[in-house]
Amino acid sequence: MFCASIKLHLKILKMKKAIIWLSNPPVTGPSTILALRFMAGGVFFWEGILKFVYVNQGLGRFTKLGFPMPELTANFVATTEIIGGLFLLFGLFTRFTALYFIAEMIVAILSTKISLYLGTSPLPLPPAPPKMGIWAVLHEIRSDYAQLLVCVFLLIEGAGRSSIDALLKSRAALLQRNS
Known about the structure:
The chain is an all-alpha fold. The chain contains eight helices and no strands.
């Protein structure tokens, strides 16, 4: 009983440390991080909109891939891509958003690229060779890979100086000094 209590306490401490780390991103990075935020945030933003505008990008795609409750899933993913894309563009809640998008990109890669490799994808094959196998996967994964790595970078480095995260952190420091 005592050991279980200690283990639970240690898990809670680790969770608190993770939340503190996520909610206190570094904001001293170069202003050029803005370019990476614009790239990733812009792509997530317009891909979210596309999922609502074109059924084959939203509901149709999630249905073909066999996701449970495809309409709910497609709408949820589209909404989070629009909101999260805006968060990245403005540099707000950057680490939380990047972590969410890392998970999303891993799911996207696993749910689409394995079947492409095996030649069993329910989605249309690429329009030009290679149409299946490792070279098809490497060709088709390029934007997913770029989005994933930019989000990993933003998770580690934060939004940089030109961000709302930096503004909020400097305002909090100012309030703390004045109190």
